[in-house]
Write a structure and sequence with these properties.
The complex is a heterodimer of chains A (138) and B (92). Chain A is α+β, with helices and mostly antiparallel strands and 138 residues long. In chain A, 42% of the residues lie in helices and 23% in strands. Chain A has a 4-stranded antiparallel β-sheet. With 92 residues, chain B is an alpha+beta fold. In chain B, 47% of the residues lie in helices and 27% in strands. Classes of the chains: A alpha+beta (138), B alpha+beta (92). Strand 2 (60-69) of chain A pairs antiparallel with strand 3 of chain B.
Chain lengths: 138, 92
């Protein structure tokens, strides 16, 4: 099952599509005429880039260029999927104690894909006298 | 499937200290490392299975997730350059 088809079925399972709409999309996919409705594999956000350019008065200039695959994020989410339910509750309780109202049960591959897609537009630029930092997804 | 569970097979390492005309270029066959570790992993599997049963963790899902995490390092690139040294690491 390719990713586009899986995405359609996920949207059907979440109630974002009716059965008829899903059937039409899959039929269009098979005909090859789906266009931009379902994201092609090549359009997915693939890497997180971090660029740091700093000048230290003592040590001189330093440049750091890091490229991290987003697949690492996806794999990490899959790893959280094997955490037993009892341990998940403990993690959620610990997060709540720290004031973080986040439920790790919501961290699913489907939700992650939506988050990763939104990260496409994320750009962080930090500029000061000696340091420039740029974080973006590509 | 290959991209999901196959760990990185090679890595490239360049190190060029200041003043050196040519740096050190290494091609690292990570697949040999995996081959060396494979017998140890196979020996550890029964113990991991027992631990998974005891702690209520799905065994094969965990193995697949761990392999997926390792495989996700494909394409990682780190480059650091300062006035003394330039280091470049790429995981293939």
């Amino acid at each position: 099952m390719n990713d586009n088809r899986r995405q359609i079925l996920d949207m059907l399972a979440q109630g974002k599509l009716t059965a008829e709409e899903a059937e039409r999309l899959i039929a269009a996919l098979e005909r090859g005429g789906l266009g931009a409705t379902v994201m092609a594999e090549s359009d997915k956000v693939k890497y997180l880039r971090v660029l740091v350019d700093t000048i230290d008065p003592m040590a001189g200039p330093t440049k750091v260029n890091v490229r991290v695959p987003m697949q690492l994020l996806r794999a990490g989410v899959r790893l959280t999927g094997v955490i037993p339910a009892s341990a998940r509750e403990e993690v959620n309780n610990a997060l709540r104690k720290e004031g973080i109202p986040f439920d790790i049960n919501n961290l699913t591959p489907q939700n992650l894909e939506e988050l990763v897609e939104q990260l496409r537009e994320l750009t962080v630029d930090v500029n000061n006298e000696n340091t420039k930092v740029r974080v973006f997804c590509e | 499937m290959r991209g999901e569970i196959l760990p990185p097979l090679t890595a490239t390492l360049h190190v060029k200290p200041k003043g050196w005309r040519f740096g050190i270029r290494l091609w690292l066959p990570l697949f040999l490392l995996w081959l060396l570790l494979l017998p140890l992993v196979v020996l550890a599997l029964p113990f991991l299975f027992v631990a998974a049963v005891v702690f209520g963790v799905r065994f094969w899902s965990s193995i697949r997730a761990a392999l997926g995490l390792l495989a996700a390092f494909h394409g990682t690139k780190v480059e650091v350059e300062n006035s003394n040294t330039r280091v470049f690491v790429k995981v293939n």
